[in-house]
Amino acid sequence: MPWSTATCSRWARSSTCEWLWALTTLLALLSPLPTWASTALQLDRNALRTDLVSHSATWSTTQSNASLEDARAAFSNGQFAPILGDSMNFGFRDEVLWLHFAVERDARDASDWLLMLEYPLIDYVDLYRLDPDGQSHHWAGGDRRPFSERSFSHRYINFSQELHAPGRYEFYLRARSQSSMQIPLVWTRSAEYFERSQLTILGIGAYFGILAGLLAYNLILYISVRDRNFLFYVLYAASVGWMLLNLTGLGFQLLWPNAPDWNNLAVLLSMACSIASMTHFTRRFLNLQSHHPRSDLLLQLIIYASLVMGAASLLLPYHWVVRVLTLMVFPAALLILAVAIQSLRQFAPAKYFLWAWIALLLGIMVYASVALGWLPKNPFTEYSIHIGSAAEMVLLSFALAYRINMLTEANRRRLVIAHEQLEARVRERTHELDETLHRLEAANRQLRDFSRQDGLTGVLNRRSFEHSLNRAEEARVREDRAFALLMIDADRFKEVNDRFGHQAGDVALIHIAQLLQGPVQSAGGQLARYGGEEFAVILPTVDAATAKDLAEVLRRVVEQSELRHEGELLPLSISVGVAFRGLDAADPLAHLVRRADEALYRAKQTGRNRTVGDL
Ligand SMILES: Nc1nc2c(ncn2[C@@H]2O[C@H](COP(=O)(O)OP(=O)(O)OP(=O)(O)O)[C@@H](O)[C@H]2O)c(=O)[nH]1
User: What transmembrane ranges does the database entry give (predicted)?
Assistant: First the structure.
C-alpha cells in the first residue's frame, strides 16, 4: 500500500507520540511529493475544520531575530517553499520556521474562528495577521510562555480569530522549538472544535482514571503486603502517567500553567523515569538477576543510561537529551519483549507480563496501521496507544497479583510440608520420650522395690522395716491404732547350712518367707527380713492375744511344711517372740524391739519351735 500524505499527517499530529518522532519523520520522507497549492482558504460556513497544510508555505531561516517585515520580504521574494508531504512535522531543527497562509472571508461569513496548533510542545509561537484594511495584529503563544497567554485554556496552542470585515487576511506564523517541530495547524470554529473534543476528553480522562485506580490499588497492596514489586509497579505507572500528562499538554494546562520552564524539563525527566522504572520493574518481576543475568546486565545499562540522561536534562540542551531518550525507547522495548519470551519457560507469571507488553505494542501497531491507512480511523484506533497502555497496566497488575499468589501458594506448600515434617518429628520424639519415660518409670519402680525389698526373699528389707515401724508408731499415737511386733528366727539354721549347703539354706529362707507372707498379709500385717535368718512382722491389732495367735499360726505353718533338698527333708521350724504396743505405751519405740527380741530369746531358751509373748 502506498504512503498516503494524509495518514502521515495524522500520525505526526499525535501529541502523545513525541518519542515516535523519528518514525514519523521517516514516513514523511518516504511520501511522494505533493502538489502544492498556495491558495487562500475560502471560509465556508460549512467547512468546520480545515487542515492548513495545503494552504501553507514555509521559510526556514537561521536569523533568529527576523521580523514580520523580513518574513513579508522573504515571501515576496519567493523564499517561502511548499511543504513536503502532507505532514506539518518538520523534525528537530535549530532554525526559526515561518509559515504563511491566507484566509478569504466573504460577506456572509460569521465570526468565532479559531486557529489551533494541535501539538502542545512548541516552545515559541508568534502569529501575525494582516487585515484587508492594512491593520496588523500579533499573538504570542508556545509552551515556554505562560499558559494564560492562550485564547482558550486548552492543552493545544490556540489563537481565537475575529475576522470583522470581508476580504483577504494574511497570516505569518513564526515558530521556534527545541522539541520536534510539529505544527499541524487547523482552522476551525471554536464552538464546533470544543464540542468535538468531548469524546477525546472522555477517553483521556478514562485513561488517567484507570491509571490512577491501578496506582492507588497497587500502592495499598504494597503497604499491606510489603512486596517491593508493587512499589516498582506504582513508580512505573506514575512515571508513565506523568509522561503522558506532559506529552498531551495536560500537565501544563492543569498543574503548572505558570511554570513553562519546568513544563519542558518535566517532559525529559518523565521520559527518563518511565524508561528506568519500566526496565527496573521488568528486572524485578521476571527475577532476571537469577534467571537471565546477561539480559539483566543489559537492562541495568539502560536504567543507568536513562537516569544519567534524566540528570543531564538539567544541564544539556533539550533537543540533545530528547533525541537520546527517544532512541533508547527502541532497544529497551525490544529487549523487554525478548526477556519476557525468554522467561516463559522458567517463570509462569512471565506469560501475563508478555501479554501486557504485547498489549502496549499492539496499541502502537494499531496506531501505526491507522497512520498507514491500513485501518480506519475511529475513537478506538485513534486512541489505541492509550488503550494499549491502559490494557498493559491492567494486565501488569494482574500479573503482579498472579505472581504474588503463586509465590504465596509455593510458600504455603513449603510451610505445610515443613509443618508436616515437624509434626512427624515431634510425634517421633514424643513417642521416643514416652518410651523412655516408661522405661524410666519401670526402672524407678524396680529401683524403689529393690531399695525396699530384700534381695533374697522378696519381702521388705531391714530399712523398710524401720520405716514401717515408725509409721505404725505414728498411726498409733495419732490415730489410736495399737500394734504388735513379732520377731521370728529360723531354728538351728546353721545346721541346715552345714548339712545341706548354703544354697539349700537360701532356698529354705525363701521358703519360710513365702510361708509367712500369706497369713501376715491376710491379717493386714507387714513381713520383713530383719537380718540373716531372722524375720519381723508388724501387725496392726487391738490386743496382744490376736498377735500371739498369729505367731502361733506362723510357727505351725513352718513346722508343718515340707521342704526337700536332693530328696532329703529339711528340718524347718521357727521361734517367735511377740511384743504388743498398746495405746497407753509411753516408752521409746526401741523398747518394743528389745522386748520382742527378749521374748524370742526366751523362746529359744525354752526349746525353740515355740512362741513367747512379752505381753
Ligand atoms: N544360707 C544362708 N545362711 C544364712 C544366711 N544368713 C545367716 N545364715 C546362717 O544362719 C546361721 C545362723 O546361725 P546361728 O546364729 O548360730 O543360729 P542357729 O544355728 O540358727 O541356732 P539358733 O538360732 O540358736 O536356733 C549361720 O550359720 C549363718 O551363716 C543366709 O542369707 N543364707
Answer: 199-223, 230-256, 262-281, 297-316, 322-341, 353-375, 387-404
